[in-house]
Write a structure and sequence with these properties.
The complex is a heterodimer of chains A (480) and B (405).
Chain A (H helix, E strand, L loop, with lengths): L3 H7 L14 E3 L6 H10 L4 H16 L22 E3 L13 H9 L13 E7 L2 E5 L2 H6 L3 E4 H7 L1 H7 L10 H9 L4 E5 L8 E7 L10 E6 L4 E9 L6 E4 L2 E6 L4 E8 L11 E12 L5 E8 L4 E4 L2 E4 L5 E10 L4 E4 L2 E4 L5 E10 L4 E10 L7 E10 L5 E10 L5 E10 L2 H9 L4 H12 L1 H4 L4 H15 L5
Parallel strand pairs in A: 3-7, 6-8, 7-9, 8-11, 9-12, 10-13, 11-13, 12-14, 13-15, 13-16, 14-17, 15-18, 16-19, 17-20, 18-21, 19-21, 20-22, 21-23, 22-24
Antiparallel strand pairs in A: 1-2, 3-4, 5-6
Helix pairs in contact in A: 2-3, 3-8, 6-7, 9-10, 10-12
Chain B lengths: L1 H8 L8 H11 L6 H6 L4 H7 L23 E4 L7 E3 L3 E5 L2 H12 L8 H9 L5 E8 L5 E7 L4 E10 L4 E10 L4 E10 L4 E10 L4 E10 L4 E9 L3 E10 L5 E10 L4 E10 L5 E10 L4 E10 L7 E10 L5 E10 L5 E9 L3 H9 L4 H17 L11 H8 L1
Parallel strand pairs in B: 1-5, 4-6, 5-7, 6-8, 7-9, 8-10, 9-11, 10-12, 11-13, 12-14, 13-15, 14-16, 15-17, 16-18, 17-19
Antiparallel strand pairs in B: 2-3, 3-4
């Protein structure tokens, strides 16, 4: 017989990234108005088109209403009580990592992020974003040899304005939704990746997002463009310190894949989730969308969502190009009073497009975990196919698991298959493992890991190891 | 929308019963459903307002039976006509519910109503006059099949209400037929209360004629150890919605639902189901099929709600859809909301067209394309039709459907 309390203990895990780095930062005053936006734009020395983009987005945002359709309950966000720009004070220009504040480097070391280029063994190029500003991007020269551009978006605005002007806001328009509009108006930094024609990116690219101050929101924007026949794998990690207040994180990610290009975007999200009483934690409202513009292009999202008090996130694919492919693999673990409403949208527009959705939700404690997804076959999507599978696992009788798939077809010559199931950790299986001498805690962890296997298999190696460790950590408790 | 004006001003609905008063009061401030909730339900606004365009008619035109009576023992009732019934036999009894009983039950139900979710019922109960409410109390077993008809006359809106109590250990077969005449709107609300150990095979067949509309709502309360089997078929309506709400009030009950909707031309037919388990050991097996052709639109939205108390629930829901035309559209939303942890819940949904390999196989055996498609459709339909309690000899629904498709 499984002791319910044991299971509850097992899923408890202290948040180990909860420290604050004491570093001098430059912040602007709280609140949001046109002047603030102009100030952000001015601080970043942006060209006029970007300021116009921001102001237009702000005007639209003012007219929009915060969405309330998600199965989430949270206290109202006071958008005037947020600092929209916060950056570590540093020298004007950094030519090498030696000039970065050692405290910052220490922070990223603590987080286990290989910022120093000596750690070449890992073969991952990192762009680290601290609060609002990108701190350092590694391996730049090596990438430049292949023609790959990997830098912070503010640098890209200065050095590659043409690309930014051409692609920014084409996948997620400024008025797409409330949080995307807010991001478009105030985004501070983020990563920019450009893979030229025919290039397979020689290493995995990674960005690491760190919120440090308690009263500033983080609004980063990522733009990845994969030209014809190119491919890239991009990893994203997130942590934040523990504060009693809720911090807003509203990011936008845009991916563009041209003919035969492929983009793999993996996320391990471990923002601070709040304490057991639900105090504090990050409000994570993210718009991620990829556009398979070219023929035979492919965009694959994989995500492991374990943090945040509130998660509102639907990485989507617009499948325009003929025979383009969209994929979504997700594990969402919620515990205590966390709430996650996450899923995907696969919009089939072009003919012979294919999409696969595999979503695994694990809810423990008093948490709420919802899958919400849309699969749409447009009138021209002849010969298109979709397969979706959504499984939920419930741990304890206080947690809830919801599934809300929306399926829409306007094309008879297409096929959609969807299945969803709910289960719990089976007592028989637990008993079996325990009778073989496996500790209860390890047995639970093994079973959760097995439940998520389909998704972990899709993660790049570095992340798969991290994700496995993360889930094991979440499941590590006081049971001895 | 004459009716909405009437509701707003609360005029010209004479001799209001207490229920009508309550419902009118509830509707008065906002007589139309919330546009946002209708948007989520993908309702076609102009079709919905077309439903309300006819004037209310409390008296029906002459009713023509769609098929002859199967056997002498079959009990036939037509809502709205003077259908006095009091049958007390050795094994069973069928009696009319008194006005007080109906009022008490409906009042209790209304107290749980939400304006957005139960708009169809509120509208029905506001418009349904005393004569158009039929209440039955059924007891015993070996009861002859019961057929209940409801229809709307041309160029008018008719509201009919049916309340049925199945007493303990009762076992019955009941077929409900809703017919829509040309240019008519029918609002049909049915309230079913299944007491302990009772069981019913309930069939709902609704079909209309040119430009007829239907709002059909079904509210079922299932007590312990009851079994509710529903087979439903909706077709040939310009606009129809079938709203099913089933509550297993203390779990330990069985629900089987097999439903189908067929849309052609520019019709829109939708089915919304909400199944709540308010106790442990509940069982649900649901399949909903849609077929959309021409420029039509078929919608299915099903939610299964399993609260903490409903441990060991076993629920499955399947939505199977055939899309036969480039201009037709199918939407399906199967939903699960689960808090209990020891449950087995699953759902599945597919949208496709007729299986090409099967068609090819049949054609290689010398069967024409039309014949082969018919064969495939008939197997698709048969699963649902065989679940509807109906006599095959007298009213062959399958033939009726195949001839029209």
């Amino acid at each position: 017989m499984v002791n319910e309390n044991l299971v509850k203990d097992v899923v408890k895990e202290p948040y180990k990234y909860g420290f604050v780095t004491d570093i001098e930062t430059e912040k602007i005053e709280k609140g949001l108005n046109e002047d603030i936006i102009k100030l952000i734009s001015q601080k970043k020395e942006e060209p006029k088109f970007l300021l116009d983009f921001r102001l237009k987005a702000f005007k639209k945002w003012q007219k929009m209403k915060e969405p309330d359709w998600a199965a989430l309950g949270y206290k109202n966000i006071d958008y005037q009580d947020i600092i929209y720009y916060s950056a570590p004070k540093q020298k004007e220009k950094i030519s090498s990592l030696d000039e970065v504040d050692p405290k910052l480097l220490e922070t990223f070391d603590k987080l286990g992020i290989p910022l120093t280029e000596q750690k070449k063994l890992t073969n991952v190029a990192v762009d680290a974003v601290f609060d609002s500003v990108s701190i350092a991007t590694t391996f730049r020269e090596e990438l430049a040899e292949h023609g790959v551009i990997f830098c912070s978006i503010s640098e890209a605005v200065k050095n590659h304005a043409d690309l930014i002007e051409k692609y920014l806001g084409t996948v997620v328009p400024a008025n797409d939704n409330y949080f995307a509009a807010l991001n478009s108006a105030v985004f501070s930094d983020g990563s920019f990746v450009y893979i030229p024609k025919g290039v397979t990116c020689p290493m995995d690219l990674s960005s690491y997002f760190r919120i440090n101050s308690g009263d500033s929101g983080q609004f980063e924007r990522t733009l990845i463009i994969a030209e014809e026949s190119s491919s890239v794998s991009y990893l994203e990690g997130c942590t934040a310190p523990m504060f009693d207040t809720n911090t807003l994180h509203a990011a936008v990610v845009e991916l563009v894949a041209l003919d035969d290009a492929s983009i793999k975007y993996s996320t391990v999200q471990n923002w601070y989730a709040g304490d057991e009483e639900g105090i504090g934690g990050i409000f994570n409202f993210v718009t991620k969308r990829g556009k398979c513009l070219g023929k035979r292009s492919k965009i694959s999202w994989s995500q492991v969502e374990t943090g945040s008090a509130i998660t509102w996130k639907y990485p989507s694919c617009l499948l325009l190009g003929e025979e383009s492919v969209g994929e979504f693999y997700s594990v969402a673990l919620t515990n205590n009073l966390q709430q996650a409403d996450t899923g995907t949208k696969m919009i089939h527009i072009g003919p012979k497009t294919k999409s696969t959705i595999v979503s695994k939700g694990i809810s423990a404690g008093n948490s709420k975990n919802s899958y919400r997804g849309l699969v749409k076959m447009g009138t021209k999507a002849t010969g298109s196919r979709n397969y979706s599978q959504c499984d939920s696992m419930l741990i304890g009788d206080q947690a809830s698991a919801n599934t809300f798939p929306y399926i829409k077809s306007q094309q008879p010559n297409s096929e959609i298959e969807h299945e969803a199931s709910t289960c719990r950790i089976s007592e028989d299986q637990l008993f079996y493992l325990q009778s073989r001498g496996i500790e209860f805690e390890e047995a639970v962890s093994m079973m959760v890991s097995g439940f998520c296997r389909d998704v972990f298999n899709q993660l790049p190696m570095e992340f798969a190891a991290e994700a496995d460790k993360l889930l094991a950590l979440k499941l590590e408790g006081s049971v001895g | 929308m004459e009716i909405i004006e009437k509701i707003k001003t609360n005029k010209s609905i004479d001799n209001q019963t207490e229920i009508q008063k309550i419902c009118l009061h509830k509707l008065q401030s906002s007589p139309l459903p919330n546009p946002k909730s209708e948007l989520w339900r993908l309702s076609n606004k102009s079709k919905l307002s077309n439903f309300l365009d006819y004037s209310i008619n409390e008296k029906d035109s002459q009713f023509d039976m769609p098929y002859p009576k199967n056997s002498a023992s079959t009990i036939r009732l037509i809502i709205g006509e003077n259908c006095q019934i009091k049958l007390i036999e050795k094994n069973y009894s069928i009696q009319q519910l008194s006005e007080d009983e109906i009022q008490k039950y409906i009042k209790e139900q209304i107290s749980f109503f939400k304006q957005n979710e139960n708009w169809s019922d509120l509208l029905n109960l506001s418009l349904s006059c005393k004569n158009n409410i039929l209440g039955l109390k059924i007891n015993g077993s070996k009861i002859p099949p019961i057929e209940i008809f409801s229809h709307a006359s041309s160029n008018s809106l008719n509201a009919k209400t049916l309340v049925i109590f199945l007493e303990k250990n009762c076992d019955v077969e009941l077929l409900q037929v809703n017919l829509g005449k040309e240019n008519s709107s029918l609002s049909q609300s049915t309230f079913f209360c299944l007491k302990e150990n009772s069981s019913v095979n309930h069939g709902v067949v609704s079909y209309g004629e040119n430009r007829s509309n239907l709002l059909n709502s079904l509210n079922v309360i299932q007590q312990k150890n009851s079994a509710y089997n529903l087979g439903s078929l909706h077709f040939k309506f310009n606009y129809a919605r079938f709203e099913i709400s089933i509550k297993q009030s203390s779990g330990n009950a069985k629900t089987n639902i097999k439903g189908m909707q067929i849309t052609k031309k520019d019709e829109q037919i939708s089915t919304y189901t909400k199944i709540e388990f308010n106790g442990p050991n509940g069982f649900l097996d649901q399949i909903n099929k849609s077929l959309a052709d021409d420029k039509s639109h078929a919608i299915f939205e099903g939610s299964i709600i399993v609260p903490k108390i409903a441990q060991r629930t076993d629920a499955s829901q399947l939505s199977r859809n055939l899309l036969l035309s480039n201009l037709a559209q199918i939407d399906t939303k199967p939903q699960l909301e689960i808090i209990a942890d020891d449950v087995k819940c699953k759902h599945g949904a597919t949208i496709s067209q007729l299986n090409e390999e099967e068609l090819f196989y049949m054609r290689t055996r010398g069967i024409t394309l039309t014949e082969a498609s018919k064969l495939q459709l008939s197997s698709y339909f048969q699963e649902i039709i065989s679940f509807i309690p109906i006599s095959k000899d007298k009213w062959d629904l399958l033939d009726k459907l195949l001839n029209e498709n």
